[in-house]
Design goal:
heterodimer, A: 195 residues, Rna Polymerase Sigma Factor, Chain: A, Arc Repressor Mutant, subunit A, disordered N terminus, B: 291 residues, alpha+beta, 2 domains, 10 strands
Chain lengths: 195, 291
């Protein structure tokens, strides 16, 4: 009866072995996870889908660690990966059409459901965001929620600054119109704003 | 024209216009009440959008994402090096021995030929360090490695140690350890029992609330004057993962033995060597019926 384990063979972590996943890169990734989750939540509309998306983005980022350029914004790089994966998913699932169906469902055909949801003012805002076309949704999340400049958002989305400007304007106006026509939720939105 | 105006208003709100453009917009706003209303509406919607998502960044990040960020997901090779040991219920024959006498003896024995605790003619023979079905064990270890809770357990240990005498104990042992455990158990899905590790020279200092697999767990803190063992922590939490054999790992420069048994996850964490950890883990498992 003896140890199979020997001191010389003591386990070590992958990072200690010099594996490609550097500790510093992982630390950067972990630090930005909360914002990636928020960004992904804005894109997908659900927590589960958002976390799946972020997980996929982490895996892709680790696989392409060598492509990240030191001195550039790590969060922007990750936002771009999340966005790219999401667009890929939309295309693969033809979600543009499905999105409309889901949006209708989320709005709720049942008036009782609508009434209950109307009380959740911020949920109403998130639902309104989900009604936006994907490119506008992405732009809104990047600039208005994540605080990227137009230039930074343009780099993430891979479009000119002018496109960001117009997408953002369309998104904000559509959002405003939706919220203004939100019927019973109008009052609660004002309450939410006041808080 | 309206579209251009909207673009400009939004860019104005976002501070994206240069000085000349800004002055142009401000002049326009001064002369046009409708534009001012529109600007107010846009500002309101922007505020609402930010508010709608502000709480998400304060949510606890799921462990699976942290694991993914560390490259520990799926078939990640983290557990490849983890040594899997098999706990067998040892005879309950531990004899208390002054720490100074058996410390070196145990380390030498453990390092050389397994765990035989010797001292003053009394000994503890810990049986059962057999390897069992390596393939199955490796699969279990791989599944276990997905959880970042082991890294967390190492972090919790370092937090306690770095605090020194001012340990961050949520529930100090005081005179009544039963009361301490009762308090900590109030926050846990299951009652926590306290292993008596005095035969190892370890004194229970108290318990802290920590997180295992996203749920509250207990970190039991033990200290000793025996520098060969040093402070130890035992993390006990509820788990939905399948049982796993005791596995040795080293994370964040800290040694640990972890296992899962019947819905509970255990991690014995310290800076001492595998010999001590193994012996103490055996004792813990025996006392808590966690084998």
């Amino acid at each position: 009866m003896s140890f199979r384990w020997k001191q010389a063979e003591a386990p070590v972590r992958a990072a200690d072995r010099g594996d490609p996943v550097s500790q510093r890169f992982s630390d950067q990734l972990i630090a930005v996870l909360p914002r990636l989750r928020r960004f992904a939540r804005g894109l997908t509309g659900t927590a589960t889908e958002a976390d799946d998306l972020v997980q996929a983005a982490c895996e892709r980022a680790l696989a392409r660690e060598h492509q990240f350029q030191e001195g550039t914004r790590f969060d922007s790089w990750m936002f771009r990966i999340v966005q790219t994966l999401w667009i890929d998913q939309l295309r693969a699932r033809e979600v543009r059409k499905e999105d409309g169906d889901v949006a209708e469902e989320r709005l709720g055909s049942d008036s009782a459901v609508r009434t209950i949801e109307a009380r959740l003012a911020l949920a109403e805002v998130r639902r309104a965001v989900q009604l936006l076309p994907p490119d506008q949704r992405t732009t809104l999340m990047l600039v208005t929620v994540e605080g990227l400049s137009y230039r930074e958002a343009a780099a993430v989305a891979g479009v000119p600054v002018g496109t960001i400007m117009s997408r953002l304007a369309r998104a904000r106006i559509a959002l405003q119109q939706h919220l203004e026509t939100g019927g019973g939720s109008r009052r609660s939105l004002k309450n939410a704003e006041a808080q | 024209m309206q579209k251009h105006s909207d673009d400009t208003l939004v860019a104005y709100l976002d501070g994206e216009l240069d000085s000349a453009e800004r002055q142009h917009v401000e002049a326009w706003l001064a002369a046009d009440a409708a534009a001012r209303d529109r600007l107010a509406g846009l500002a309101q919607s922007a505020t609402l959008v930010r508010s709608a998502y502000v709480d998400i960044v304060n949510e606890a990040v799921p462990e699976r994402l942290i694991a993914a960020a560390r490259g520990e997901n799926g078939a990640a090779p983290l557990s490849h090096d983890a040594e899997i040991l098999v706990l067998k219920r040892p005879p309950r024959t531990i004899v208390s021995v002054p720490a100074g006498r058996w410390g070196i003896g145990i380390a030498a024995a453990a390092g050389l030929f397994g765990l035989v605790l010797g001292g003053a003619g009394s000994y503890l023979a810990v049986g059962g360090l057999n390897s069992a079905n390596p393939a199955a064990e490796q699969r279990l270890a791989a599944a276990a490695a997905n959880g970042t809770w082991l890294d967390n357990a190492a972090g919790y240990y370092k937090l306690v140690v770095s605090a020194g005498d001012s340990m961050l104990i949520d529930v100090p042992a005081g005179g009544d350890t039963g009361e301490a455990l009762q308090k900590i158990s109030q926050n846990l899905p299951q009652q926590v029992r306290l292993p008596d590790l005095k035969p190892w020279g370890l004194s229970f200092r108290g318990a802290r609330l920590v997180v295992v697999e996203g749920r509250p767990a207990a970190q039991l803190v033990y200290t000793t004057d025996n520098k060969a063992i040093g402070p130890l922590t035992l993390v006990i939490g509820a788990s939905k993962q399948p049982d796993i054999q005791p596995t040795f790992d080293r994370r964040q420069d800290v040694n640990m033995l972890y296992w899962r048994h019947q819905g509970r996850a255990y991690a014995l964490v310290g800076q001492t060597d595998i010999g001590y950890l193994w012996g103490i883990a055996n004792d813990v498992a025996w006392q808590l019926d966690a084998i």
